[in-house]
Amino acid sequence: MSHKAWMKTVPTENCDVLMTFPDTTDDHTLLWLLNHIRLGIPELIVQVRHHKHTHVYAFFVTATYESLLRGADEIGLRKPVKAEFGGGMRSFSCEEDYIYENIENELYFFTSQERQNIIRYWLENLRAKQGESLHNIHFLEGQPIIPELAARGVIQQVFPLHEQRILKRLMKSWVQAVCEAQPLDEICDYFGVKIAMYFAWLGFYTSAMVYPAVFGSILYTFTESDQTSQDICCVVFAIFNVIWATLFLEEWKRRGAEFAYKWGTLDTPAESIEEPRPQFRGVKRISPVTNAEEFYYPPWKRLLFQCLVSLPICLACLSFVFLLMLGCFQLQEFVLSIQELPRIVRFLPKIVLAVIVTACDELYKKIAYWLNDMGAW
């Protein structure tokens, strides 16, 4: 319950992102990571706190307004421009910070989601140097430290804190509201564009479903009971659905483009430049596409592992489960053929099958994780 206890923490000016650790974390690990964050990311302000009920340590992470401005410039955060400078959305630039709306107001220029996104970007790009290690974890040169520690369980979780004031306002205007339009702009400001775009699509889809629902109900009401009439109505409804689906998709393209332009993501580059997962291994090289430094693993090695290791193991696991299932079925027939056995014993094969399926599920999950880590380097 320790991670749930931390999630009730009230955000203040001293914290935007919370990083928690298991209760077994030693002081050496905390000091090692704290030293790397303070030296590698001097823009961040980190406070170490201890939860008195769960005895778990956590890092309260935030940054100054000036540091956040530099971070917005670094990640190319898009912000609205003042009307006298052309309006619209533009990637933030510290050299021309005066052209952006609310730049003078430290409290309202960045939303909580934007502050947390900048801090998360810094944390995920804390890189290891050649030969660095923590206990039995040996980092590669240039490898992101915090995602690797999170994948190894050294860091329990890294999450942003909610602002209860905004959540209560959204609860009234969004969750508890009936027959009212969704506050999509407020959702976008708080949760980000991806979440807002999802609920925009969900609301548009729900509204669009009214047309086939009404038309189908009317068609069902006036359909006679004979087969010919039902066949005609089915054809008519199918034609209606084809037309409706086409119009729905085309209209959503327009509506989605409007939201993307409004929220400044219409010309955002693809997410292909995101960091690879922490377990990825390979040799460092210069990407022929982006000219940036990256880890590279030859595709032929991955294909060789998949053919010689992954495929045989998967087939063996499937065969094992299939044979166990046949064995349980045979046991079931054998038990049912003996009339003298108590009634409760007849359920024994089903119980055995349920236990085996549960055990295999845990075993196969570990095998799947191992194959994924090894076969997708």
TrEMBL record:
One of its GO terms (molecular function) is chloride channel activity. The keyword Transmembrane helix applies. Keywords: Membrane, Transmembrane, Transmembrane helix. It holds the Pfam family Anoctamin. One of its GO terms (cellular component) is plasma membrane. It is a multi-pass membrane protein. The keyword Thylakoid does not apply. Its main location: membrane. The chain crosses the membrane at residues 199-222, 228-249, 303-327. It is found in: Membrane. It comes from the Eukaryota. Residues 187-374 form the Anoctamin transmembrane domain. Belongs to the anoctamin family. PANTHER family: ANOCTAMIN, ANOCTAMIN-8. This is Anoctamin. It comes from Steatornis caripensis (Oilbird). The lineage of its organism: Eukaryota, Metazoa, Chordata, Craniata, Vertebrata. The gene is Ano8_2.
